[in-house]
């Protein structure tokens, strides 16, 4: 049995998009939000560690985070394999996950692991100080979607331009 979710408050809604720039344009027009932070995550970033289905992860993605509540995250998969590529192959682009901010990604993964659940995909070390992490759990059978737990880094890297 899975542990309870850490909060009844959803912190993030994640969407997969084929083109990040166009996705940001559409969501900007829909929500009238212009404050977006953009990042590229890849295995060659200093200090980052990725996993995909229990193996070292080699995926690359570009993402944009809106200053909304809940936060809107747009993800453009660049290279895989990844959970994003799997989802797109099975379901196409669009809504992908609900996210919950947690104080420690390590503690959250350990708690789920103790319940017999392994993350499908993880990443860590993308903050300026080597902190920050995420873990995705495939919970489509139970909740109808993927759940992401997110340890927000204390200091993010500077935003890229679209």
UniProtKB/TrEMBL annotation:
Q: State the organism of origin.
A: [Mycobacterium] wendilense
Q: Which domain of life is it from?
A: Bacteria
Protein name from the UniProt record: VOC family protein
- Pfam families from the entry? Glyoxalase_4
The VOC domain covers 9-152
């Amino acid at each position: 049995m899975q542990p309870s979710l850490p909060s009844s408050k959803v912190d993030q809604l994640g969407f997969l998009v084929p083109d990040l720039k166009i996705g940001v344009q559409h969501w900007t027009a829909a929500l009238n939000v212009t404050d977006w932070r953009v990042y590229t995550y890849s295995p060659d970033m200093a200090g980052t560690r990725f996993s995909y289905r229990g193996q070292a992860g080699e995926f690359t993605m570009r993402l944009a985070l809106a200053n909304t509540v809940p936060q809107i995250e747009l993800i453009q998969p660049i290279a895989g394999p990844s959970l994003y590529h799997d989802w797109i192959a099975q379901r196409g682009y669009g809504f992908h996950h609900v996210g919950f901010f947690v104080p420690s990604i390590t503690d959250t993964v350990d708690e789920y692991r103790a319940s017999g659940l392994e993350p499908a995909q993880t990443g860590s070390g993308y903050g300026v100080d080597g902190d920050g992490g995420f873990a995705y759990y495939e919970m489509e059978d139970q909740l109808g979607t993927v759940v992401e737990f997110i340890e927000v880094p204390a200091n993010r890297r500077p935003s890229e331009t679209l």
